[in-house]
Specification:
The protein has 273 residues and is mainly beta. It contains 1 helix and 21 strands. The protein folds into 3 domains: 110 residues, no CATH class; 87 residues, Immunoglobulins (Immunoglobulin-like, Sandwich), CATH 2.60.40.10; 62 residues, Immunoglobulin-like (Sandwich). The strands form 5 sheets. Strands 16, 17, 18, 19, 20 and 21 form a 6-stranded mixed β-sheet that branches. Strands 10, 11, 13, 14 and 15 form a 5-stranded antiparallel β-sheet that branches. A 4-stranded antiparallel β-sheet has the order 1-6-3-4, with no helix packed on it.
Length: 273
């Protein structure tokens, strides 16, 4: 009787280990796509497994529900029309795949929302925050925050959009230069074209930052700023060499020559000896 019990235990343990192995092998990773429904289906390139037997994708879920699409082929379609989604409905597509292979979604852009926001207000407060209120958003696209300095618009951060049509309020911490500061936000939707808000301005009445050795001066080791500032260093041919934020910059490893320096709200130059 004891031999029978031991044999039964061995059989159960062996069955469990084999089952665990095959479950792990059938699902080794997943691709997650978030977006909105715009009336179009997704197409997936589905390679063979590394063993050369069977296809990579093991399961596809649409908003948590397993699809009935035929996934055992080199290319397959995720048919979203059968769910009767309303236009603009929020979607989460999960493509589970086996180990050692990765499927490829051929047209993920069909889930990208369109940029439709309208800015109701955009202001800068003295505490160092850019505040804006928007409405008529269509999908959770990020708002990209830009600052105008050194004669160009520079991305300084982003805030995830709420994606609802009502009034949405946002806040983003910013750093001021001396003098006039100008900020705006932009959004890029499914057509890849940027849409911009009006700009907001703030005058920061503090002394301008200077640097040693000064405009056109020579140095062999470091640049010293009179205060904390963001900076960019370009070589004579316009190639970006160094960027950061500090009160000093080590330039000892730069080759001898003329360099252009962007800092605070100014663009100047120095010579590396």
């Amino acid at each position: 009787m004891s031999n029978f019990v031991n044999l039964f235990k061995y059989f159960v343990i062996t069955l469990f280990l084999v089952s665990t192995f095959f479950v792990k092998d059938s699902f080794a990773g997943e691709i997650v796509l978030d977006g909105i429904y715009k009336g179009e289906n997704l197409y997936v390139e589905n390679p063979y497994t590394t063993a050369g037997v069977g296809f990579c994708v093991s399961e596809v879920l649409v908003n948590g529900n397993t699809t009935t699409d035929e996934i055992n082929s080199s290319f397959f379609e995720i048919d979203l029309s059968i769910y009767n989604f309303r236009y603009g409905a929020i979607l989460k597509i999960v493509i589970k795949h086996k180990d050692g292979c990765i499927p490829r979604v051929l047209n993920p852009e069909v889930l990208t929302p369109e940029s439709t926001f309208i800015i109701k207000s955009i202001t800068i407060d003295k505490d160092g925050f850019l505040n804006w209120t928007s409405q008529k958003e269509h999908g959770r696209l990020p708002f990209i925050v830009e600052q105008f300095k050194w004669n160009k618009w520079i991305r300084i951060g982003s805030v995830k959009g709420k994606g609802t049509s009502g009034l949405n309020q946002y806040r983003y911490g910013i750093n001021f230069n001396s003098g006039v500061n100008k900020f705006r936000i932009k959004q890029i939707g499914s057509n890849k074209k940027a849409r911009y808000s009006p700009s907001a301005e703030y005058f920061n009445n503090v002394p301008e930052i200077t640097f040693i050795p000064g405009n056109g001066g020579k140095t062999s080791q470091k640049l010293f700023f009179s205060g904390f500032t963001h900076f960019e260093i370009y070589d004579y041919y316009g190639k970006l060499i160094k960027t950061g934020a500090d009160t000093e910059v080590d330039v000892s490893r730069l080759k001898a020559g003329t360099y252009f320096l962007n800092y605070d709200n100014k663009s100047e130059m120095f010579i590396k000896k």
